[in-house]
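User: Can you help me understand a structure? I only have the sequence.
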Amino acid sequence: MKYDTLTPFFLATLALTSCNNRTGDRKAPNIILIMADDMGYECLGCNGSLSYKTPFLDSMAEEGMLFRQCHSQPLSTPSRVKLMTGLYNYRNYDYFDHLANGQYTFGNLMKEAGYSTCIAGKWQLNGISYKDKIPYWNDTTRTEQFGFDEYCLWQYTRERKEGERYSKPLIEQNGRLLTTDEDDYGPDIFADYIIGFIDRNKTRPFFIYYPMVLVHDPFVPAPLSEDWEKRDQRYQRDTAYFKDMVAYTDRLVARIVKKLQDEKIEKNTIVIFTGDNGTGTAIYTKTKTGIIRGGKGNTKDAGTHVPLIVSWPGTIKEGSVYEGLIEFSDFMPTLAEVAGRTVECDGKSFYKLLTGDDYEPRKTLSVHYDPRWGNSSRNRNQFVRTLTHKLYIDGKFFDLTEDITESRPLNIDSLSRMEKKTYLFLKSELDKHPVWVKF
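Assistant: Let's start by predicting it. Here is the structure, written out as tokens:
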């Protein structure tokens, strides 16, 4: 069926999952969800990177839980919509840089659960790219509609061409445009705002969503770079600066966690770190298993495989590693279970993994990708996968244990008995998802 923008949302045939696990009488934990922009799985030392230094995130993984197989959408807005609503993109994604009015997000969820809520970082959800079709593209109340009490954002109601995110950033904060200069660094402003929010709300439960602007291009000097001291170099673009941007990401997460420690609330705070999609394609990363080229915008493994670390001192067993599948629709029901709320979505809560209780692993994860954005739309696709195999809507079937780059599709007529069984299982799962896009 050809994509139809007038088709109402939620007409999909796949049933929504209800999560209704109560947390009892214990004190509700704070939650900070940090999502790096364009940082694939391979960028962290704990995931095998040899190119970049991420000492704090590595230690966070050692002291908390490291997830080996978390998968996002291949591009930013599709990932953000799926993450925030817990729904597959075919249910509620319509335009790039847009989250449709009326969607129920984890901001709404946490606010209804009694949390103070804040969002800081990159928004890109007002529909600025479609001003002729979206009348509310400059509505400054949209964050409030989606459940956030406070905001400090780049690309909220102003386009990227009006101001970048790094040196002299264009940032809107609770209804006003900040005055900045070349010495101001956007990521520092967002982190400072989050730390201030923690200080103002430390005596009650809070939820902070921090969609970072790092490490997205332009690849320019960070305050850790030698060239940062040269003002004329702060807008010089070079992939060589990427390593400093990754290191600065690590530093900012450390600053936020240190605030929790200083306030002695770290044991009652869940800190989640992930990435919104694979690394930019201009970046090549040395890892313990070889060189990985960033796969942003593509449904291959390098485009969807992202880091995931969860810290919850005193609750998560130190050094925990989870090898099973996690997808971006899973965050919404996990937060619901933390908050003791009920939510209907496509995801599966992984809360029990954090508490050490019995957990039934996902058998498959699914990606429906139709970004509706420039050249990226040529890579639109749909697949279902297990840990070991992957089946696309066009019938291409891959053994990921032998072919992670997906260069050698298996011949369906020559499958082994076990491969045939896996193929038929994945086909039955894929058939549950409606195809609204003519691939």
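Now, to help you interpret it: Confidence is low (pLDDT under 50) at residues 1-13, 21-25. The first helix runs from residue 55 to 63. Let me know which part you'd like to focus on.
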